Amino acid sequence: MLNFSEEKYLKVTNGAVGLRSQIEQDIDEVSGKQFKNIFLLGSGGSIAIMYPFEYMLNSVSTIPAYAEIASEFMLQNHKQFGKDSLVILSSLSGTTTETVAAAKYCKKRGATTIGLVGELGTPLANLVDYPIANYAENDFSADSINLQMYIIVFRLIHNHGEFSDYETFISQLEGIPTELMNVKKATEKKAEEFANTYKDETYHMLVGSGTSWGRTYAYSMCVLEEMQWVRTKAIHAAEFFHGTIELVDEDMSMILLKSEDETRPLMDRVENFANDYTKKLTIFDTKDYLLNGINQEFRKYLAPLVLATALQRVSIHLEDKRGHSLDKRRYYRTVAY
Predict the structure, then answer these.
(1) Which DSSP category does 225 fall into?
(2) Distance (Å, rounded) from C-alpha 292 to C-alpha 117?
(3) Boundaries of CATH 3.40.50.10490 in the chain?
(4) Is the pLDDT of residue 335 over 90?
(5) Cα gap 246→102, rounded to integer Å
(6) DSSP-assigned beta bridge partners for residue 231
(7) What span, in angstroms and rounded, lies between the C-alpha atoms of 83 and 67?
(8) Whole-angstrom Cα distance, residue 26 to residue 15?
(9) pLDDT per residue over 193-233, tens digit each?
């Protein structure tokens, strides 16, 4: 595969699932504190990662859950937040300004905090009550954080007396790094063809829902816009027919990210429309991947992970075909703003 290290990828993903014992020990201690709700905080790609887990929490558990953008959260005076809240934050570098500030804000108010980072000793890791570190660089950070979040979130739900299949699900997840490699291999040809076809495209519309919405938002803003300087619009499938529909014509590039959760009918509706009105339709669907060793009933939770790992191959081929490095920035962490 183009510009890919299997050894590096497996080290990151196996490292993430290898944290299971530590995470379970931390979460069991947190569960004993009788928190009343969960806040999932982040900025940019890190809040995008949290959106699917908010969806899962609200679909599987009775624990109130709120995914909030860190900088807005600190200004909002959220009435559900307090000292008996549990806060989960992530920042690969451990230095994201808004996320570090949010951790300080939460600590000052007495909330319990968990921080997912790429390295201990960073500002976020030093602030939170429970730092969890797995080294990864930007290319595989989503896989690393997602894998840790599955263990955290479903352990919390299990300890709350819900989701009795926890042991089966997480044990199967421990073997998924190899399956994710197969996802990449299965996506390689499609990714290269997409990059060849759309390397000069100036605008894409990305549509997702449910467990795929966070990755839809992230790929639109954090990859195509930030890393490739391509204009996009991320739109939730449930909202597509309430305005965005009018932007579609036969030359509109539409990228649909489909999961296998309860919201799939929303995506099917958009797909049916797109088939009639645009000649530029691309679909990435978790249903197209085997995922050996994963029970059918668990597949609906895995869209964030499967789509992230598949789309990484699209990014690599876009970088190659467009001659635009994924590391090139004009403003982000380059100038003061």
Answers:
(1) I
(2) 29
(3) 6-173, 188-322
(4) yes
(5) 38
(6) 203
(7) 17
(8) 17
(9) 999 999 999 999 999 999 999 999 999 999 999 999 999 99
Whether the CB-CB separation of 336 and 174 falls below 8 Å is answered with no
Q: Give the 3-state secondary structure of residue 262.
A: coil
- Is pLDDT of 316 > 90? yes
CATH of the structural domain 188-322, one choice from 3.90.180.10, 3.40.640.10, 3.40.50.10490, 3.40.190.10? 3.40.50.10490
Measure Cα distances from 219 to 16, 293, 336 in Å: 22, 27, 24
Whole-prediction pTM: 0.97
| CATH domain 6-173 topology | Rossmann fold (3.40.50)
> Which amino acid is it at 47?
I
What is the C-alpha separation between 2 and 320, in angstroms, rounded? 9
pLDDT value of position 337 = 86
Element housing 288 (H / E)? none
129-154 pLDDT per residue, tens: 999 999 998 899 999 999 999 999 99
Q: Average pLDDT in the 157-183 region?
A: 98
83 contacts 91 by C-beta, under 8 angstroms: no
Place of tokens 């309860």: 262
80 CB burial (10 A radius; 0-12, 13-18, 19+)? exposed
Element (H, E) at 163: none
